[in-house]
Structures are given as C-alpha cells and as structure tokens.
Amino acid sequence: MARVHNWQLGREMSYWYPESRPNKQFAAVFDTNKCIACQTCTLACKTTWTSGVGQEYMLWNNVETKPYGFYPLAWDLKLLEMLDGQKWSEKEYEGQKLHTYEGQTIFESAPAGERVLGWRPEDIDYAYPNVGEDDCAGQVDGGASFSLQHMAQHMAWFYYLARICNHCTYPACLAACPRGSIYKRPEDGIVLVDQGRCRGYQECVKGCPYKKVFFNAMTGTSEKCIACFPKIEQGIQPQCFENCIGKIRLAGFINTPDKAQADNPIDYLVHIRKVALPLFPQLGLEPNVYYIPPIHVPHSFTKQMFGPGVDDAVKTYRNAPNDPDLQGLLALFGSSEQMMTRWRRQGDFVSGMRDDGSEAVRVPIKEPVHVRQPYDRLYQITRTNCP
Amino acid sequence: MNNTIRLFIALALFSLTVSGCRSTVATTTEVVAIQLNAVPTAPNDAAWDEVPEHPAKLLLQDLVEPRLMKASTAEVRVRAITNGNEVAFRLEWDDKSKDDLPGPARFMDACAVQVPAKLEANVPDPQMGGQGKTVEITYWRADWQAAVDGRPDSLKEIYPNASIDGYPFEAKSLEKGSAAQTEMATRYAPARALGNRRVGPREAPVEDLIADGPGSLSPAPPAGSKAKGVKSDNGWSVVITRKLPNGLAPGARTQVAFAVWEGAQQETGARKMRTGWVPLLMKGAETK
Asked: If you classify domain B18-149+202-287 with CATH, what class do you get?
C-alpha cells in the first residue's frame, strides 16, 4: 500500500494506489436542515439512469431518515461495528482547531487477503429503502410531542440524509477492484465503473462503505452514480441537484485546504467557514459530498457521522441570519441549474458565476414578502389562506 | 529403507488410491488426452469411462489480493480426450449446492481451463501468466449453463414474486422489436451497449479469454469453445472443449491449469481454488 495525505483526517494514511489528485474534483454541499425527504431527487435519478432491467432495486440517490433509516439495511452501523471506534485528537494552531484522526481507516484495518475492510449486502438488505422513515429517536409518549433539542426533556429527533456517490478522493470501490475496472476521471474526479471492462466480481460493492455501487444481475456488471457527467460537461448541475425542491444542494468543485479560494462556493463552505462536513471522514476515503449537519440533533450522534467539526459547524450555521456572506451563499442553493463555480455578494444580492466569470444567476438574499389580503378587490372574491 | 519396504509402501499407497476412487479407473500423475475420432460433448458420454483420470489437488489463490483465505473445493478430477483438432476436458468436483442464480452477494459455481498461449520451454506463471507470457483461459459458469439449457434471461427467474411497473422500452409509443425499442433498452444497459460479454443472451456457457498476469483478463476473439455442465447431488461434471493449444500436435506435451469457484463460498474472480501447472500429454493415434 502507498502512503497518501488525507486532509479530512489531518494525517497521512495507507491506500492501495499512490496519491493522484484529479485536475478538478467534483464536490457538493447538502444542507440537511432543508431536506424534507420528498424523494424528488431519488425519482429524478431513477427515471434518468436506473429504469432498466436489473436496475429495479438500485437507488443511486436515496434519502433516508436518521437514526433508523438505511439503504441498504444498516449500511453504516455494520461497518462502524467492524471498525474499532473513532478517536480524534485536537490541538490549536494560530487560533484554528486542528483535528487528527487517531483511529484506523478501512484501508488500514483491511484483514489479511483483502484490500479494504468491507462487507457485502444481500438482496434482502436492499428491499426496504423506506425503513425507519420518519421514525424518531427516543420516545414520544405521555402527551409529549416531537420536539427540538432545546426542549431537553423530550429528546425525540430525526433528520433526513440525502445520499449519492461521494466521488471520493480515495475511492474504496476503485481500490477493491482487482482488475482496474473503476477509474477516477482526471478532468473532474468523477468515479466511474467501466461497463465494458467490469466482470461483476462485486468487490467494489463489498469495498464501498457507503454502499453506492450496485450489482446488476441482468447485465452481470456493477453500476453506480455517474454524477450526471454528461450534464456537468455542459456546465449544468446533476439531476438530483436541479430537481431538488428543497434547494438543499449545490454542486461545484473543491480544492485542497491549502488552495482554498474564498470565491469558490464549495471551498468557502467547507474550508473557510467549515460549516459543511464530510460523511464518515474516519473511514478514510476523503468523500466529496459535504453536509451541513442538522442543528437539532445531539452532537454525540452527528460527531460520529460528520466528524469533530460538528460543534463549530452548527454554531456557524445558527448564526447565519447575522452573517450576510454565509446567508447569501446559502441563498444561492437551488437558484440555478447551472454549475456556479464562483460567487460574490453585493449588498442584499448574491451572484453565482460560471467558470468564465460570467454571471449565471443573481438572487436576493431575502425574498420580498407579500401578504395577500383575504378579499381580492379586483375579482371581488374572498380567498382563504390555509394555515 | 531397503527395496522391499519401498515396494511395500508403494503397493499400499496404490491400493489406497484405488480404493478411494469412485470407480476402478486408472489415475495418472499428469493429464493424458486420449485421441479418439470424436470428442464427446456430454459429461456422461461412455467414452469418458475409458480415459485415465488425473486427480488435481486445488490450492488457495493466496498470492494476490483479494485472496481466498478459506479453502473450499479440495480436488478437481480431470479427464481429457482429443480428436487432433480439439481437446475436451471433463472436470468433476464435489459440490453439494447448485449456485446458478446471479444477484447481489450471490456468486456462481464456475470452472476454468488455462493453457500457455505459446508452446515454449519457459512457461508463463501459472497464476494468470505474466507480461509477454500470455495464457489462454476457457471459463465456464453455472448461470450461463442454465441460460443455454433454456432458463429465460429474465428477472422473474431470480425473483419470481417481483412486481415491475414497467420499463421505458415497453412504452406504447415504441413498436415491439423496432430499432427504436432496442435503442431505448440499450440506453439503460450500458454494459450491453459496450458489448460486454457478461450480458446475455448467450449461445455457449463458456467464454474464451486471455491474460498477461493477475488483473489483466480480457476477452479473446471467439475460438468456438463449447461446454456442457451437469449438476448431480454430489457435484458438477463439466466438459469444456476448445481448439488444441497453439502448436500442439498429437504426441506433444504442454502445461494445463485448472480453477474452480464455489459460489456458495462467495468465490469469484481472484477468490478461487486453483492448481499449478499440470503436464498435459496429447496422445497421438499411434500412441494410443
């Protein structure tokens, strides 16, 4: 195994291949606080890519309710049980908190004979994509109702976790494939299974901790999310981004922290404001979908899922109403189908720009509010506003 | 040890070997291909009864990751017949379970025959050959056999209770069997669009491949290989027929290697039981 640098772990780690970062890395930020689990993203993906024979069970994009929702069943719990906990150390450097992962990644804890520590779901594990939907942690009884964290006496909570392939910098699927059928595109870092070369060994299915590679029994090959690369090549965001009615998603490209650009929306949220965090960074893949963690969930849970930056991320996010730049950038989510690789705020407006610097969209940070009177004088009719 | 004791031990070992076999067929320390006018294609053809058997011990593939760490099939029993143009190998091994339904975390019973692509003194690595040292592999799989034997290539065969709303290629606007319908079906099956041989329909349960080392397995131009596999309660009996290895004439020798995958043990790809090189003698008509 080679030694590579994983900035999400704050250290070097072992990986099957030497470090080879793409020229650009596709990345995304999902705001979990805005997701309503309408599954429009899931359906947008399904109808676009996985409507074929043998793809029936596949959800390249899915939304599950945490803590009890999983697709496939217990995908995260099974691996967390196999890994020996997670230990992070923290130190201060020039006023910044630096976290280092002290535990083992799935590459470092690969058993003898394996390239990656993994497990393989069976077909029954994919049979309940809606398991645990809207089930909350804790009990809601004795007249109690669903409540937020500040009502500490009722610790009932849940949140929605939308998931696609993380197009990892160190993909476990790619490391696990014994015949090099999986590759990472140098132009945008998108991870693809070569459908001409794959022989359906399902080593990638076993290796991917996020379980985002799926075996197609009717073609005999494994298939996965392609980040809608034909759209990205035309400067358009993927289907699950464009169709998200909750406007929770923003696609772009991420730099490494040492090259972070403040006018790159993903860099700004991930590196500069540190409000968006990777999913299970301790596994060691350097995943490239970043999540703004749910603000109402106990941090003991979200720290395990998004790493040690959760406290600060939630604090920063909660302060967004007093933070025009952050509030402005969040307003850019879902404002255009185009890829906005740069952004700027001017007063009460925020603009998203294309690669060439031209403006793709300009939106107000706060939408004007219109209060409609019950009686419409023009049409002489009374309308009732639903509460 | 004097010669009398040596002879005694040899006789005792011989009687043990014979009593351990299912029939009284002679066993050989190499694979001896007997020459007949025609090569039998069925595993139960009476012609096989007259052919000596080589019991090949199987080893774990534990040289390259992913390795097989737990041994499964112990032995493959091999017989061979040639007609001077083709050679047929009959591979038999013990296997209680029939694994021929593909799906997530489901793997197929399979076997393969490997020969060096060139007849030369310096043989390739028995583990899939090496750079510039190509090996030819003929690979048989149980689910392909089921398909060739008539099992429909349909999801309902795997999941009889599956309920499917519809597929885009079944849209009313697409004429059945039209080019437009095929195009729509192919759009959602990229492996098919790229001509990947994993995708059916298939005419033979076997595939011709070449390799230049682990991880380099690639399709070979179709060489007309055939196979027929039959499962009994005890195990598989598979006849793989391929053209004679390059430059191999009756009376000549080369090397052959075998591999067996036990689907129930999740064996696939590099996770397999295999042999090293075994000498292969092609008997000529005159040497019969």
From this structure: mainly beta
- Pairing of the two strands A88-93 and A342-346: unpaired
For residue B163, the distance in angstroms to the closest alpha carbon of chain A comes to 10
Q: Residues of A near B (CB-CB distance < 8 A)?
A: 49-57, 112-115, 120-123, 125-126, 176, 178-180, 195-203, 205, 214-221, 223
Q: Are A220 and B62 in contact (CB < 8 Å)?
A: no
A-chain residue closest to B105, CA distance? A122
- Chain B residues close to A57, C-beta within 8 Å: 104
Tokens in use for B65?
């990751």
The C-alpha of B53 sits at a distance from chain A's nearest C-alpha, in angstroms, of 32
Kindly report whether the peptide bond that precedes residue A72 is cis, defined as omega within 30 degrees of 0.
yes
- Cα dihedral B170, B172, B175, B178 sign: negative
Prediction ipTM score: 0.90
Closest residue on chain B to A197 (Cα): B196
Residue of B nearest to A219 (CA): B199
Mutate to test the interface with A, among B143, B198, B202, B261 (most CBs of A within 10 A): B198
pLDDT tens by residue, chain A, 387 residues = 999 999 999 999 999 999 999 999 999 999 999 999 999 999 999 999 999 999 999 999 999 999 999 999 999 999 999 997 789 999 998 888 899 999 999 999 999 999 999 999 999 999 999 999 998 887 666 555 555 555 555 567 899 999 999 999 999 999 999 999 999 999 999 999 999 999 999 999 999 999 999 999 999 999 999 999 999 999 999 999 999 999 999 999 999 999 999 999 999 999 999 999 999 999 999 999 999 999 989 899 999 999 999 999 999 999 999 999 999 999 999 999 999 999 999 999 999 999 999 999 999 999 888 888 889 899 999 987 665
Other Cβ atoms closer than 10 A to A62: 24
Structural domains in chain A plus CATH codes:
2-318 (3.30.70.20)
Q: Do B64 and A178 touch (CB under 8 A)?
A: yes
Closest Cβ–Cβ partner in B106, B216, B268 for A201: B268
What's the CA gap between B195 and B217, in Å, rounded? 16
Which residues in chain B are classed under CATH 2.60.40.1190? 18-149+202-287
Distance CA A125, CA A73 (A): 5
